[in-house]
Structure formats: structure tokens, C-alpha cells
Request: fold
Amino acid sequence: MKADVVVLGAGMVGISAAIALQKRGRSVVLLDRRGPAEEASYGNAGIIQREAIEPYLFPREWGKIIRYAFNRSPEANLHWRALPAIGPWLFRYWRNSTPETKKRGAAAMQPIISRSLAEHEALMAASGTTGLLRRTGYLRIYRTARELDLSRADSKRQFELYGVPFEQLDEAGVRRMEPHLQSSIAGGIFLSQPGSVSDPGALGQGYARYFQSIGGRLVEGDAGTLVEDGEAWRVTSSSGDVHAREAVVALGYASARLLAKFGYRVPLGVKRGYHKHFHMRGNAGISRPIVDSERGYAMAPMTKGLRITTGAEFAEAEAPPTPVQLEKVEPFARELFPLAGPAEVEPWLGRRPCLPDMLPVIGKAPRHKGLWLDFGHQHLGFTLGPVTGRLLADMMTGEAPFTDPAPYRLERFL
Ligand SMILES: Cc1cc2nc3c(=O)[nH]c(=O)nc-3n(C[C@H](O)[C@H](O)[C@H](O)COP(=O)(O)OP(=O)(O)OC[C@H]3O[C@@H](n4cnc5c(N)ncnc54)[C@H](O)[C@@H]3O)c2cc1C
Reply:
């Protein structure tokens, strides 16, 4: 099978890049070891985080670090036995989490985040998936006046700086938006601009069908079989060998493993996260995702039920699941809303692909002709897939990139 480009990885990032390239006249094969959008892009909280301009940094306050280290805070869980393997990455992440890198990171995020929702909306319209989108924003709620005040001050600082609309709510304001809230809280911050979807996996699959409808080919295979083949690339699939002039690595957390084969040492860490769906009692429900900020988890209304998603678990990517954070946060969610029983037995585990500066890698592989990179979208790959796909396609087809791609180069780590 011959193609101009083979895109490796059919998560939100790879599917979006494949569409952007196919639409510009390239013949594209999209390869995955399983179906489209079945890994991180399936199980996330489904928020298109139009507000998330400042990168998620490692905490610098000792109190918080100690709570994280001893697993006293439900928003994080550390596998101590994994430290020899993940410690060097954690150290780089901590070292990168300075006010200076926050400023630089925000400057790099702004051009891509600000187009993220518009790029999704265009793809949704083209692929007939607009029905999955909710334009109801999302809410961050606070249980104590102290945390609410701190968050108000920080929201004012950052959102005014980046021109992101936000609204400060007292408890009554939150109740007006979410009348099924059943316990008392201090208040919240409402972000009206972000979108959210009722089924992230279905959106990815809808985009993949659209890719096929415009002539793209979707195949099953192991990206680990990628080899250089003269001036081109070859990868084995269940539909035969794929030969392509160019290859795009969009394998999420697995991208570094493939790149190691070509001599690149990429500091790609993993923040694991879990979800589980619950039914609500009676006719109770929520109209938008809600982040219970002091308890470190999110609740999002999904087709399957109320999806509770957890914060970060620092562990080896392939270690067996340890969903202790879900066990810790479920009672907190039950305090707030009338949850009934779980909608599934086993929690879902996913992996956020994270570079130490919390920016993605988008661009050329420095030492290999025709090898392109699009991974490391950390907490925001669902948001950023379409817009970074466009940026990559700009670069690959020689069009003027809509923003300077320099901050996303792999060379920053080499
Ligand atoms: C709990 C949780 C909540 C989140 N909430 C949000 C949110 O609300 N908003 C947001 O923007 N982001 C969110 N994220 C982050 C987001 O889900 C990820 O950043 C995003 O899905 C990454 O997309 P991806 O395409 O890079 O990776 P993936 O979706 O993981 O796709 C990678 C693909 O590569 C394939 N692959 C891997 N290795 C091979 C191989 N050897 N051969 C062939 N194929 C291979 C996999 O099968 C997979 O399909 C959340 C993540 C988690 C875990």
C-alpha cells in the first residue's frame, strides 16, 4: 500500500493530523494497533479547555509536595517503587516548573489554545458530530472560603491577563447553575468559553469516519515496525506493508519508545488518570463538567452516566492499575450530588503524555528526513488535537504556519 504520509497513532492527535493532511491533498494512511480513539482520547473528561493557557506545573510549595509525596492528597498518587524509573523525569518536571517557564509556556500555549475550540467546531460541522458538543462552559467549585478567595485572586490575575472571560459565583450562583447540588460549598468560578462533549471516544470515532469519507485509509498495525526504506518509510499493517514518503509519530505516551529506536532520547513522562461512570438518582443531573478543585477530581456528564475522572498518578506507564484516587474521591462526589450505583465494574485507566515543560512536540525530527512529530499534549490533547494537526499540516505542506512553531521543536530537549 502506497501513501504520501503514514500517521502512526489514531488518538485525537493522530486522527486530527491525518484529516488536516488528507484535506490538503496528501494521500494518508492512519495506523493504530487498535480502533480509533480507544486510549487516552476515549476516557478523558471531554472538556475543550479554551481557557487553559498557563501550563500545569509541578507544585513548588513544600507543603503540597509533601502531601503529594505521601499520597495525602487525592489529586495525586505516587508509586514509590517506580521512583528509580520515573524520578529523573519528575525531577526535570519540577525543575521546569518555575514562574519563568510558566510565562514562556503560556506564551507558547496562547496561539494554539485560542484556536482550539474553533478548530473542533469546524471538524464537528464537517463530520456531523456537532450534536456531541455542549456550549455550557465548566465550573470550578470550592468548598472553603479560603480556597475560593485564593482561586478568585489567581483567576483574576491569569484570566484578565489572557482575556479569558470568567465569572465569580457565590453558593447561590452555583446552585442556580446546578440545582442538584446537595451540600453546602463556598462558591465557584464559571468559565463560559470552554466547550465539552458527551462522549470523547465517539467524537474521535466520528472524526475517523470523516477521515475515511474524504479518502483516508485506516489500518491496523504495530508502529514499532516502522523502518527507513531508502528515501521513504515502511511500516507493517494487517492490510500489508505501508510505504510512505513521510511518517508522523502521534502515538501519545508511546511516542518516546518508537523514537528511541531512531536514536532520540525524549523525556516523555506519563501522568496516569482513571475514570468511572455513575448513575444519578431520580432525574438529577449536571449541565456541564464540574471540577471539585479542593478534592482534585472532575465530574462530567456523559452518555454513559456521570464520569468521574481523577488527577495525576505518577507511575510506570504499563504498571497494573491502582485506582485508589477513584476510591478516595467517590465519597466527595457523593457529598455534592445524588449519585446512585456505578455504571461499570472496572475503572478505566488512561495515560497523559507529558514533556517536562508541559508543551507538546510538533515539527520535524531533527535527524531523519520525512519523519514528523506530534505528541506530548499532556492534560490537553483532546482540546489541542485539531489545532496542532493544522499546525503540523501547515509545516508539512510548506504553507506559512499560523503561528511560530519554534516553541514546540523537539530540539529544546536534545
Ligand atoms: C483522566 C483524564 C482526563 C483528561 N481530561 C481531558 C480533558 O478534559 N480535556 C483535554 O483536552 N484533555 C484531557 N485529557 C488528556 C487527553 O486525553 C490526552 O492528552 C489526549 O487524549 C492524548 O491524545 P493522543 O492522540 O496523543 O494519545 P492517545 O489518545 O493515547 O492515542 C495514541 C494512540 O497511539 C496508539 N498506539 C500506541 N502505541 C502504538 C503502537 N506501537 N502501534 C500502533 N499504535 C499505537 C494507541 O493505540 C492510541 O490509539 C485527559 C486525560 C486523562 C487520562
Q: What stands out?
A: The mean pLDDT is 96. The two ends are 34 Å apart (CA to CA). The pocket of flavin-adenine dinucleotide is lined by residues 9-14, 32-34, 38-41, 44-47, 49, 222-224, 250-252, 254, 273, 275, 309, 350, 352-353, 375, 377-383 (CB under 6 Å). Residues 22 and 230 are 24 Å apart (CA to CA).
